[in-house]
Amino acid sequence: MPPRTEKTTALRVAVLADSDTRWKWGALTARRLTAGASGTSAQRVEISGLLLRGRATPTPRQLAEVGDVGIEADRVREVTAVEFLHTVRDEGYDVIVLALVGGAVQAMLHGLAALRLPARPVVVTGYVGVVYEKLADGLLLRHGADIVLANSRHDAERFRAVYEGVGADASAVTEAALPFLGGEPHRPQEGRDTVVFAAQPSVPASRDDRMYLLRRLVEHARLHPDREVLLKLRSKPGEHTTHIEELPYQRLAEKLPGGLPPNFRLVYGHMGEVLDRTDLLVTVSSTAALESLHRRIPTAVLTDLGVREALGNHHFIGSGLLTSWDHLDGGFRPEPDPQWLAGQGVAADGTYATAYDHARARVDALLAAARLPDLAVGDLPQWLALHVRVGQIFGFGRRKPPRGLVPGQIDMRTVGIQNEEQKVIAEVRAFVRAHPTPDPTLVLFFSDGGVHRNREIEQELRAAAEEPVFWQFVGLGSSQYGVLERFDTMPGRRVDNVGFFAVDDIERISDQELYDRVLSEFPSWVRAARQAGILR
């Protein structure tokens, strides 16, 4: 992997994946997030692939079956978790896509925080397909990423409801779509009649249920000898995918009485290529159903084994797609409900080209957001000389010409000016979440007045009430402090996480009095926060 140099101007992206399907999702997500409106990026982009070593690390065959994801082979390698963190430290990535199971996402977030990088990369994560189990568990393990992608409006609403329901910040949830949707819309062809069953490694789980589905599929082939019937498999025996396949259909087919009819075949390969010749897609709850619906291919979700959370087909309640093998044998073809379909992110209406616009804008905004370097008290004189440049921006929007920046200096125009307290509060909150510590955090916030974004500030500080941070505001100069003066009396918080006092003339009070007032409310908050379980 080429080292980063001073001359490297490309946007550098790393994808960390732990299985074949997550590699497909992560790599294509990285491509879509870094592409412009025309499908290409004006800036050169370097995407590196990192495969997390484990039981489901994809084999070369599985990687080839995923198809072209736009990442050169010499930019894909296998790593341990520690090697990944060392690579992040050394390479200086701008964006990281974590295509991992929830627990691994959380571990990587903690690992990234422990690196204490001068500027953490933008961290993106999400889900490979239909989210039908462990919703709260998976989402809370992903909390702390800068962007949590939702594959549909339906998912975005559910994700936000979970975060907000536990008092967590839901702003990272960003609606997009599955990154691997594509292909031409379905067009029937004379002389072609192909039914594809999209198998799943762990659904259903029991031998009897899997044998039942296989038997019904084979019987369907025998009932319709002129119809091509394909069993689309995810992996070969011995290979692992996102889910463990204990009972491969290949092995079960070998034991089927009477053998297999000539119009029935087991197939592998890229799902998109299989869908190119599909006239009916049948599944229990595979994400392939969403790929099929995107291309307007007739799609059926089986109810033979019931409609249950364990099967995942409860996700399709109200879709119009639920049916049985008996109906399919008789020629029934389900029609999707338009209202249900509109919320599923399959963009069957042709809007897929813009599905990633909002997510792309979020990434661009996060990359563009500048923040001043952290300050150690002993470095204050040098820090002030380097970064505090009063008068660069002044008076009625007129700007002085920017002077040349010395090495390490931040262009103050990118940091922001005027009263944007809510943005600073949000930045501090994000930093504390990204760098967890067992000790409480005390924030000293000095304001010279002019506070007017009361609603936004209140929202941020109310949301921060459940976080291990105490906000001590100090007013300087007898000015308007807005909501800050009233926060002590605002209800709806388990603990009072904000203190405020004003100093008309800071030169007239002693250091001792100033320090006493700065710390006057912090100890009582620590006690209350520990009692409420906010601090451990």
Main sheet properties = 7 strands, parallel
Do you know the CATH architecture of the largest domain?
A: 3-Layer(aba) Sandwich
**Taking all residues together, what is the mean pLDDT?**
84
What would you call the shape? elongated
Number of helices: 19
The CATH topology of the largest domain? Rossmann fold
Residue stretches low in confidence (pLDDT < 50, at least 5 long) are 1-8, 391-402
Structural class, from secondary structure content?
Answer: alpha/beta
Short description:
The protein is α/β, with parallel strands linked by helices and 536 residues long.
Structure description:
The chain is α/β, with parallel strands linked by helices. The protein has 19 helices and 16 strands. A seven-stranded parallel beta sheet has the order 3-2-1-4-5-6-7, with helices on both faces. Mean pLDDT is 84; it is low at 1-8 and 391-402. Helix 3 packs across helix 4 and helix 4 (102-115) runs parallel beside helix 5 (135-142). The longest helix has 17 residues, at 207-223.
Helix-strand layout with pairing:
Elements: E1 11-17, H1 20-33, E2 45-52, H2 60-66, E3 76-79, H3 81-91, E4 95-99, H4 102-115, E5 122-125, H5 135-142, E6 147-150, H6 153-165, E7 173-175, E8 194-198, H7 207-223, E9 228-232, H8 249-254, E10 264-267, H9 271-275, E11 280-283, H10 288-294, E12 299-302, E13 322-323, H11 325-329, H12 338-342, H13 357-368, H14 380-387, H15 412-415, H16 421-434, E14 441-447, H17 454-463, E15 469-476, E16 498-503, H18 511-518, H19 522-531
Parallel strand pairs: 1-2, 1-4, 2-3, 4-5, 5-6, 6-7, 8-9, 8-11, 9-10, 11-12, 12-13, 14-15, 15-16
Helix pairs in contact: 3-4, 4-5, 16-17
